């Protein structure tokens, strides 16, 4: 029988290991986001395939930063065509098409989620943002990058200003431990690392006296009113908020 206890423990151990391994990187990433808030700039977030789940986690959700601009192309989402999404993230040149519509500048930061960290879209997106003067936070797995076939001139690890390592093993599956076939962890760990960054942004920012722009749940008293002010500020700059 599948042991839920085993899976809970292995997932908990993975999160604890990721937190320990990335302590300095989380602090550095939080520092970059605090710079964005001070400059009244934007945090751009991007990914492809199932890494778009992490992008959704960053955007327009209770407890999340309001100053997030999600970079997106519909062909990257498996729900719009599973095989097409794989072909699309391997297509060189798409990143520049996306950046041509809206790109981060020197005061902004780009966060790129990609577990494999080798496909042209995330790698070229990071490289394009850096050419435009933006810092890049790469959330990836160094082990997966090392094991994956090279499809770009560089990797996301090489293009990141700050690199967070999810510690996910090649193939992403985690269960059973002896021969992993299921229980993928990248989505869970990516969300956890993002929340660690947000927690540090909140602690350091409030201690500094910054007003951290955080969404409230629309299903709590006062949530809609609090969000209305954030929408008025960011909707003109973030079309996806409309």
Description:
Helix 5 crosses helix 6 (120-131). The radius of gyration is 18 Å and the shape is globular. Helices cover 47% and strands 10% of the residues. The model has no long low-confidence stretch (mean pLDDT 97). It has 10 helices and 5 strands; from the N terminus they run ααβαβααβαβααβαα. Helix 3 links the parallel strand 1 (43-47) and strand 2 (68-70). It has a 5-stranded parallel β-sheet, with helices on both faces. It is α/β, with parallel strands linked by helices. It has a single domain (20-170, 183-241), classed as Rossmann fold. It comes from Amycolatopsis echigonensis.
A few lines on this structure:
InterPro entries: SIS_dom, SIS_dom_sf. The protein is built from 10 helices and 5 strands; from the N terminus they run ααβαβααβαβααβαα. The protein is an alpha/beta fold.
